[in-house]
Amino acid sequence: MAKITLDNLAHSYLPNPSREDDFALKELNHDWRDGEAYALLGASGCGKSTLLNIISGLLHPSQGRILFDGKDVTDAPTAQRNIAQVFQFPVVYDTMTVRDNLAFPLRNRGADAAYVKDRVNQIAAMIGMEDMLNRKARGLTADAKQKISLGRGMVREDVNALLFDEPLTVIDPHMKWELRTQLKSLHHEFGHTMIYVTHDQTEALTFADKVVVMYDGRVVQMGTPQELFERPEHTFVGYFIGSPGMNVLDATLSGTSAVISGTQVDLGRGFGTPGGKIEVGVRPEFTRLTTGDAGLPARVKRVEDVGRHKIVRADVFGTEVNIIIGESEEIPADANRITFDPEGVNVYADSWRIKPEGEAA
Question: Distances in Å between the alpha carbon of 230 and those of 38, 84, 106, 278?
Answer without folding.
Answer: 19, 34, 43, 19
